[in-house]
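Minutes, methods subgroup
Present: GH (chair), OT, SY

1. OT presented the first of two proteins processed in the latest run. Sequence and structure tokens recorded below as shown on screen.
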Amino acid sequence: MTLIAFGINHKTAPLELREKIAFSADSTVSALASFSSSTGAQDAMIVSTCNRTEIYAQVDTADKQQVVQWLAQFHGLSPTELMENCYHHEELDAVVHIMRVASGLDSLMLGEPQILGQVKQAYSDARNSGVINGGFERLFQHTFAVAKRVRNETEIGANAISVAYASVQLAKHIFSSLDKSRVLLIGAGETIELVAKHLAEHKVKSLTVANRTLARAELIAKPLGASVLTLAQIPQHLKDADIVISSTASQLPILGKGLVESALKERRHKPMFLVDLAVPRDIEPEVAQLNDAYLYTVDDLQQIVEKNLANRQDAAQQADQMIQQQAQQYLQWQQSQSAIDLLKHFRDQSALQRDLLTARALNQLADGKEPATVLTELANKLTNSLIHAPTKALKKAAHEQDESSLALLQEALGIEIKQHPPEH
């Protein structure tokens, strides 16, 4: 059996194609059954996210074309289009790829932690579907352990590499604990939605989303248990905010210096942390002149992101070295298991032959045959049976003048050839 990792991702295929071959949670079970039936895969697993669709499998023949044909047929697509946008790894390369994916090293956002949970879920789905056997059990338990080591022993996830996440990390540096902070988010686009999710994970004391239309603000606020405001209500509520993060499409500033100054007075000059992620700006730059206001712009955060990305890339190199070593370890274990299985089969086969010949000898004795004759026949037949296969291997190696195989067989069979001194 050959281990393969086949797929397309954000590096090899546009979003339009990735959408077409994505698997929903409902379709994965039937897809796994169909793939196993079509390819004869012993183990199979499908990882499908917004950035990748990948198939991991143990197959008799590592035929890339076969996997492409199945995937194209399942989704009703052209095999040619898939062939042009896919990748295919085998054995060691496949193990390395799987470990890199689970560790976040192959993600659009380098080092992002969500992919590990997605791979674990895919593994669980495949296992529950009955298409995971002993080989994948060991492979993926090892993979999950490696991904955990990468997370714990490198700095791959220590630094923010999105402005949304950087905003929250910066807030954590200024406020030692966010669980006592009141947060006002201005806007309701993707960036604010991402910021809101990061803040919710830190269990802030209160979260409010202000937007021009309340309906859009509700979409972000409701799942997180946050409250909503209109932009017109901001002046009367700004004093309550310890943290303000804004990202709208407004052509004019939402917060002016005077408004923030008034809010700070009502707060009795308790510090306020403000982040302006908008272009054009949502917060007048003069706000930075106020003593108790700490204003950061998208440019400030971008510098942090670029520095952190460089740090993550250094960490990724360390992680790659770790993964290469661990992948080799897994394959060595797999090869040792193959040897153990082969030895067990050999012992079982020999024991079966012994039992058959012993049963025959006992029957002969029961029939009154001479014991010495029976024992001699048993010894001869058992000897011939046990040396038959090694004899064939020795003859073949000698005929092909394969010195290394001859030496290996000699050692394995414990054959000692004594050199006689030349006659005079």
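2. SY then presented the second protein from the same run.
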Amino acid sequence: MKHLLLTLGVFGLGGLVGRAADPALTIYNQNFAVVRDTVPLELKSGVNDVSFSDTTAHLEPDSVILRDPTGRVNLQILEQNYRNDPVSQELLLSLFEGKTIDFLIKGTNGPDQTVQGKIIRSGYVSPSPSAMDPYGQNDDQVQQQPVASTQPIVEVNGKIQFGLPGQPIFPSLGDDTILKPMISWKLAADTPGKVDAELAYITEGMTWHADYNVIAPQDSDVLDIVGWVTMDNQSGKTFENAKIKLMAGDVNKIQNNRMMEKDIVDAASATVAPGVPPAVTEKAFEDYHLYSLERPTTLHDGETKQVEFIRATGVKSEKVYVYDGVKLDRYQGWDFENIRDNEEFGTDSDTKVAILREFKNSEVNHLGMPLPKGRVRFYKEDDQQLEFTGENEIDHTPKDELVKIYTGNAFDLVGERKRTHFKVDNGASWADETFQIKLRNHKTEPVEIRVVEHLYRWNNWQISGNTDPFTKTNAQEIEFRIPVKPDEERTVSYSVHYWW
């Protein structure tokens, strides 16, 4: 009987084609990617059987597109099959449970020897083991999910042992066995010839995100910003010398809803250090933004790769203190009818004064590139050393927009908020409410604290009295900007009249 040493054997596949050109990827930050590859075909007139075994393990079969980009050959796909049940040592052990096979034991000081062992337990657990028969007894499409494993148990010479006694040697496998995920087609061609067909498909298991490191000098609010893109490939396939694009934006994608993307004509340069060519360029695409890596790169399966995409110096910023003292946690989901005449609503308050960092994402401010969403980490110099001062996330931010990032709460600033008057008249359809806010500064320098108040009882309102000027920031929000000297307490109060 012929045997196969699994780690050394090579399986032949009829009709298998290679890859002629380097692949291209567009990775979305929603755990999927569009893969574009080239399949070299040598076609005859009529029906052709073709197989391609260089796909990912998480390909979405109904997203596959195969075509001749030149249009010289009219390709008609009569049938398409996707197999994702590649043979492995663990899988074969599970198929031989209860049977006896040979194990090769490498000799350390002597010759190699072969022993026979009965596989009591393979240690492999599959969600659908019957659908993964390497001898071709089941041709159903299988998309194998990650499996759990336990320690194998093997009987050798009548004795039970945990673990394999040596390297397993399995009987010869059938022609229907595959080593990697594979697509096979029955193609009808109207003319014979060689074609470099374009293959495109969507795959899960790939994503990317942005990270920003922000450094502020010890006595300045002028920032240095370095942005990185981090790509994560868990697709089951290595992409050699791939042209990679990164799509930023909230692309709608649900199960059975596929989206492909078009080529980009040109790209605008990111902000980089003088004299250094950009590693990543950016281009508006539809209602999203594409970031293209300038050089082809190899992205290994299971690899996390980082590329710097923005480096900006001299970014002017402002540190902002905000007291938004109302706490509405226990009123989530309440509507106006429940709010307007509830006396307790809005009386819970907090004492924390938030720290926000603001800067304009504009060319004048040495930025001006659409910023993909990601984590922002802030560092401040102290005695020529960097100290971490907080982090948060930003959403996708267009150019020329103001970036506001919450980084923590001020230690030496305190807010106090209480309601001093409330009256509602449902018969006359009105309500009056008065609040008093106290601000205390225990720092050694003066600060400005922005007091944010939410007018949440009804759409119709009017400030009927106030101690300090305010700005209406939206339909139901006002803001006071209050300067507070060191060791000073300032009191702000206002009254609001609602009607409905």
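Chair's summary of item 2: The helical segments are 89-95, 336-340.
Next meeting: continue with the remaining queue.
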